Amino acid sequence: MSLYPNVPAQAPPAQECASQVEIRIHCKDLMNKDVTSKSDPCAALYLFEGAKWSEIGRTEKINNNLNPQFSTAIGMKYYFETAQKIKICVYDVDNATSTLDDDDFLGSFECTLGQLVSGGPLTKKLVNQKGKPYEKSFITVSAEEVTEKTELVQLSFKAKKLDDKDFFGKSDPFLEFSRQNSDGSWQVVHRTEVVKNNLNPTWKKFELTSHALCKGNKQAPIRINCYDWDSDGSHDMIGCCEMTLTEMMKANSSNEVVKLCIHPKNAAKKKSSGSIILYACKVSILPSFLNYIMAGTNINFTVGVDFTGSNGDPNDVNSLHYIHPERPNDYMQAILSVGQVCEDYDTDKFFPALGFGAKLPPTFEVFHEFAINFNPQNPFCEGIHGVLTAYQNCIRQIQLWGPTNVAPIIRHVAKFAFAAQNEEATKGAAAYFILLLLTDGVITDMNDTVEAIIEASSLPMSLIIVGIGNADFTNMNFLDGDEGVLKSKSGKKAHRDIVQFVPFRSFVRSSSAELARNVLAEVPGQVVSYFRSRNLMPIEKQT
Length: 543
Prior knowledge:
By secondary structure, the chain is of the alpha+beta class. The protein has helices spanning 113-119, 210-214, 245-248, 289-294, 330-343, 383-395, 407-422, 424-427, 446-456, 476-479, 512-520, 523-533, and strands spanning 18-28, 41-49, 52-58, 74-79, 85-92, 104-112, 122-127, 133-145, 150-160, 173-180, 186-191, 206-209, 222-228, 236-243, 257-262, 272-286, 298-306, 350-356, 358-360, 365-367, 370-371, 380-382, 399-400, 431-439, 461-467, 499-503. The strands form six sheets. Strands 17, 18, 21, 22, 24, 25 and 26 form a seven-stranded mixed β-sheet that branches. A four-stranded antiparallel β-sheet has the order 4-1-8-7. β10 and β11 (186-191) form a beta hairpin.
């Protein structure tokens, strides 16, 4: 929230949700379809979307080569929040037509793009059109991010001997930064906080991408306006100056960049209204989510399921936990949709699955944190389908109860995130945790849940809440930081926004991919913001 009215607060630099990647391919020991020479291979990349395979691109053809290393990379967009199924088909091209249907098929390979970017180069046997592997033919596929390096500029400003614009007291100055548009107009890109009653203010350091600050043009002018804040929004200008990023980059501990703060009315006389001083400037490369994933950061995925009585008797077809013989219920669909995406980024593919709000056999005591496979020493399920199997077995043995207390499960995952944080000094950006919490109603322990989320907000952890059913989920929007920083009744504030809430009913008529896109869209930015706050670069870049 802005520290002063009528001046919007600045959001941190947005992390791009999509990344451009290049797919590179080489093959070994391809089948020879030519009689008098060797095969002339070409590889085509297909993406499964809209219930069909669509060609994204293809490599060059290499003549007479059974071990081709294709030089042409195939570019495509990568989205973390989507399970992008891809297929590579290799053909022996013996004609000049653009279609590949009339060329000899040499084999294919399928995976998700997530598996490719998280697992590094994949080497697999090519399979024939019936899915049977060839004995000797192999394909190696790799992906790398293609992006202009995002420069992050961190700036520290102060001022001296500013004009006093207030009759009673001293000026309350703040700075406003603008970049110049192509038509000569100015676009505000940042405002500092207000320093009250001070003619020699020092503002908090802030950061912007170089693109936001000056569109990446280090020679472009950046206008700095200095205002005296007024509560009614009619801020009085004290003066202004201009700098370029090139000039800014000269600022360091032994060299300050000083500019006279001159009111436009006094420009001809060059009468100063004080000095604006840049005393520190740091330019660094902003790593992307893909940088971390490709360097080995592991995404640890945990599922938490609401087994409270408000879901309804599982034997009743109207229950949210009813197991239909032919189709998954909403809980299962949400687990499958989100879990299939996260599965590609978890190296061991074993996922803890927890429940809350039920009475467990044999004593039928109420538990607010239990393993749905009934093995508290090893709550891990093999793959997302293993989670679904454990869920179906669990629902048949427990008694739904209550209340809806979710803080224990949040703290359970936070405990492991805390342990990972303590190992960052030696292991770096090695692990990040995602908790998918599925619930059908109003959280009973809201105050404790807020405290648990605030505690977790300083850890390598994100919380995704999916509301199942038609209950009133109004309070969930309070947990989601979209409306401001989450704050507890005791006054503690979240270090960062780690919560994303969506009601499942909004996606009943949509595909499972659409649900995954919406609940996971913020995760890449949350991962990057956490590791940056800890000054942790991707593992491979650490020295």
